[in-house]
Amino acid sequence: MPASRQHADRRKTSTARRAGPAGPGASAATIGVIGGSGLYQIESLRQLREVRVRTPFGAPSDAYLVGELSGVKIAFLSRHGRGHRLMPTEINYRANLFGLKQLGVRQVISVSAVGSMKESRHPGEIVIPDQFIDLTKQRVSTFLGRGVVGHVGFGDPVCPELAARLEEAGGRIGATVHRGGTYVCIEGPQFSTRAESDLYRSWGVDVIGMTNATEAKLAREAQLCYATVALITDYDCWHQTVEPVTVEAILQLLHLNAELAKRLIAEAVPKIPEVRACACGSALRDAIVTRPDAITAETGRLLAVLKR
């Protein structure tokens, strides 16, 4: 959920590596984890190293922390940067997702703090949404352009296979998990007005945040599986018997939610099949409408990374 957080532990390292556009090399990881507010690192990562990636879209939010978790190689990225330096609008979403793709990632677990829009979804619980409503206004949410036009299918924006593994892991660790529902994504950084909050509730949405719809669109274009672990911290401002959302109230739950997310991820990662049975990996197959001979060499190289 959107708001400045002050908790961070910037780790110094002398083992930083750099991955360029050519490919992941020794830094390859198959699963990516994007940590939101309160989740800036995973301390249980083994054989940890920082990897800084160059992308055609600029620099990602931070260095990727690449290491092993539960025997599986993953790449972790702090969405807002360690120290929580970036507002939702300032995040370089294209660089973040393209960098994961360059590192060899195929499946992305997005962890986000959110507000609940339903009485039945309580702070401290988890929602794994299967739909998004994108109300952002100031973001580029496509890798395409630069002389190439394409339209990926986005009717079902969340990978059902990955979402199922996350739901099962949540159950095994004793978390209250709600599978399915709609995440409404607003621009921020301000929270909603009461009128806006009431409007979103009339649409039947389940949670509200400021980041995940943008990520989901880019993940689909990059042929990445994508699913959200939405950690509820508050009731936005609609609830009549609860104080309106504040940064102070959110901070009280962030630490507990971050620890819950780490446990869920550690439980889920070993159960995620390396061979994908979903259709996420072929999203671009019939999406490009530009004639191949009209695509420049530079844009062709970008597409080659997205398609691999």
Concise synopsis of the structure shown:
The protein has about 300 residues and is α/β, with parallel strands linked by helices. It has helices at about 95-100, 160-170, 195-200, 210-220, 245-270, 295-305; strands at about 15-20, 30-35, 45-55, 65-70, 70-80, 105-115, 125-130, 130-135, 175-180, 180-185, 205-210, 225-235.
The main pleated sheet reads as:
12 strands, mixed
Number of domains: 1
Q: Which bin fits the share of residues in helices?
A: 10-25%
Please compute the radius of gyration using only Cα atoms: 18 Å
Q: What structural category arises from helix and sheet content? A: alpha/beta
What is the number of helical segments per DSSP (H or I, 4+ residues)? 6
Architecture overview:
There is one protein chain. By secondary structure, the protein is α/β, with parallel strands linked by helices. 24% of the residues lie in helices and 21% in strands. The longest helix is centred in the C-terminal third of the chain and has 22 residues. α1 crosses α4 and α2 crosses α5. The protein has a single domain, classed as Nucleoside phosphorylase domain (Rossmann fold, 3-Layer(aba) Sandwich), CATH 3.40.50. It contains six helices and twelve strands. It is globular. α3 links the parallel β10 and β11. Strands 1, 2, 3, 4, 5, 6, 7, 8, 9, 10, 11 and 12 form a twelve-stranded mixed β-sheet that branches.
